[in-house]
Amino acid sequence: MTTTDMKIKAFATLFEYSVIALALINVCPSPSMAQEGHSHTQTTQQQEMTPDQKSKANALIKIVRDSTERYKDVSVAEADGYALQFGCVSGPDYGAMGLHYVNGAILNGGELDPTRPQIVIYEQMPNGHLRLTGADFLVLADAWDKKKQGPPELMGQLFHYFEAPNRFGLPAFYTLHVWAWKDNPNGAFVNWHPHVSCESFAGQKP
């Protein structure tokens, strides 16, 4: 078994036991593979989209909303196998991603289904309530690339690529955030939300 295979196996084991530090974050996506992120405003994104692309983007947001609406109650998400990982993820300069509740079984499956996100995202409010803000779709790059299907996309939305090595020592991965429940002025599919905060989160902040 090669060193790379051992790292990937170890990483999968960590997910299986829900002892992971999600690499969702303060690293820069590779410019050769990543979709444009927070540098584009929502208006610019909409202007660049064709009518067909806009239709697919709106359809994806609606599917994610319809599929995750029951998770407004975080206890329902937990009953479905989602668990909080890595505290609250803050942005490198401003904004945040918030709280990531990861479903290890879906993640380890390595498939993309708009109705079954690997991660649902919350923001903790000052009163302690968790507000559902969106979903995150994530696949490990090595496993995905072996399928020889090209970079992953979901209903026309290209995933962001995070290369290895990265600050967490994890394998490269692809990720797509869908801010279905809290409008993001920078676009519905960027990594960071300028109006999400970790200030009210009482646990550990990365």
Low-confidence parts: 6-44
Overall outline: globular
Largest sheet: 6 strands, antiparallel
Query: How many E strands?
Result: 8
Q: N-to-C terminal Cα separation, in Å?
A: 33 Å
Structural class: alpha+beta
Query: What's the mean pLDDT score?
Result: 79
* Helix and strand pattern: HHHHEEHEEHEEEE
Please state roughly what percent of the residues sit in beta strands, choosing from under 5%, 5-15%, 15-25%, 25-35%, 35-45% or over 45%.
15-25%
Descriptive keywords:
23% strand, six-stranded antiparallel sheet, alpha+beta, 206 residues
Please provide a written account of the structure.
A hairpin with a 5-residue loop joins β1 (82-90) and β2 (96-103). The termini are far apart. It is globular and about 45 Å long. The protein is an alpha+beta fold. 36% of the residues are buried. The longest helix has 18 residues, at 51-68. 27% of the residues lie in helices and 23% in strands. The chain has helices spanning 3-16, 42-48, 51-68, 74-79, 104-109, 141-145; strands spanning 82-90, 96-103, 119-124, 130-140, 153-154, 157-158, 160-162, 173-178. The strands form two sheets. It has a six-stranded antiparallel β-sheet. A two-stranded antiparallel ribbon has the order 5-6.
